[in-house]
Design a protein that fits this description.
- By secondary structure, this protein is α/β, with parallel strands linked by helices.
- It folds into 2 domains: 220 residues, P-loop containing nucleotide triphosphate hydrolases (Rossmann fold), CATH 3.40.50; 60 residues, Arc Repressor Mutant, subunit A (Orthogonal Bundle), CATH 1.10.10.10.
- The chain has 11 helices and 14 strands.
- Helix 9 packs across helix 10.
- The chain is globular and about 70 Å long.
Length: 360
């Protein structure tokens, strides 16, 4: 079973080679550099900025458009029809949803799928705990004794030390469970509203991205808006792919259920924003199936969108239709169509043809 190889400045570090202190120092230096890059406009005054500009000449690069480039394609989290949702080789994924919406299960399914392909997985755990993780992996049918799965219990552990040790594992995939607890441990804004703190988290993970490990950030929904992850808008701006999880039918260890995966962002355009990308089916035998949506599933998703629209109007009335669409962050034409239907049915009230919306 192979663990994959990577190029970059961290190739010299093998398991059991350089000390943890050396690795941590390397990562700390790189993270410090990245934090400056992200936060320069906040932390550097105009005098320092001018001095730096004089010291570092900016030379534009002429691009060669005759050469083909490789953009990561969906090759992971594969549906039953062979279509993938996630991408390997240095892509930042963001998956969010309510508690018990299936987001962690989907992450575990992805991890198992990649392990079975011979890839190396790192799990940075701030939330679930080792015993529960083993139990859930076993319940999903994964019982390998010597898999390249490296677990880090982050309780009381330095995040930089964890990243340093994770680099030595040469991972293909890194899972962060969850964003809220990671930010809290790092001493950041525990409400997840600070752009600076979220960028610092990405800066901490940057050395792993540089060696082409794909990242999966597990997150929670925002208060009062189930279509968005909690907190800062930087999450949507900085990640490459974002998925929202919503429950269709609750499930347990003894009952079947299902959930929807909706695309909230796809930087490379393989899926349109707002698209229902997959239906996740959970059955009592512990099997999890990821399938393509049907017309029936689309109808259920439309009903869920209508409920979201009504909730947004209720919390923000009076609000324009465009204002609602900007909050939902789905395909605008589809949102406006659902708003018109809700107005026609009398479930929303509009002042004139283009006036603000209220609830009856």
């Amino acid at each position: 079973m192979t663990t994959g190889t990577h190029g970059g400045p961290y190739d010299d570090f093998e398991r059991g080679g350089s000390t943890d202190a050396t690795l941590e120092a390397l990562v700390r230096a790189r993270v410090d550099q990245l934090r400056v890059d992200h936060l320069a406009r906040e932390r550097l005054d105009s005098e320092l900025a001018i001095e730096r500009a004089e010291r570092e000449a900016v030379i534009p690069k002429r691009l060669d458009f005759s050469k083909a480039v490789r953009v990561p394609k969906p090759d992971a989290l594969i549906r039953t029809d062979g279509v993938g949702l996630m991408r390997s080789k240095g892509v930042i994924h963001h998956i969010f949803g309510d508690q018990e919406s299936g987001k962690t299960t989907v992450a575990l399914v992805t991890a198992i799928e990649r392990l079975r392909k011979g890839e190396t997985v790192v799990w940075l755990d701030w939330e679930m705990g080792e015993a529960r993780l083993i139990d859930r992996m076993r319940s999903l049918g994964f019982k390998e004794a010597d898999a390249p799965f490296f677990y880090f219990n982050m309780a009381g552990m330095s995040p930089l030390s964890a990243v340093a040790q994770a680099l030595a594992c040469k991972p293909n995939w890194v899972f962060v469970d969850s964003v809220a607890y990671a930010l809290e441990t790092m001493g950041g804004d525990t409400t997840e509203n600070a752009t600076r703190d979220f960028l610092a988290l990405l800066g901490m993970l940057a050395p792993l991205i540089e060696v082409k490990a794909s990242i999966v950030l597990i997150d929670h929904v925002g208060h009062g808006d189930k279509s968005r992850a909690r907190g800062t808008s930087a999450k949507g701006q900085q990640v490459d792919v974002s998925f929202g999880m919503s429950v269709v039918k609750r499930w347990s260890r003894t009952t079947d259920g299902s959930a929807h995966i909706t695309v909230r962002k796809d930087r490379d355009g393989y899926f349109e924003t707002g698209t229902l990308a997959a239906v996740v089916e959970f059955d009592a035998s512990k099997e999890v199936t990821l399938r393509a949506p049907t017309m029936y599933d689309e109808a259920i998703a439309a009903e869920e969108l209508q409920r979201q629209i009504i909730a947004i109007v209720t919390d923000n009335q009076p609000i324009t239709a465009s204002g609602v669409a900007s909050i939902v962050r789905r395909n605008k034409a589809g949102v406006l169509q659902e708003i018109r239907q809700l107005v026609d049915e009398g479930r929303l009230v509009r002042e004139g043809d283009r006036g603000p919306l209220t609830v009856p």
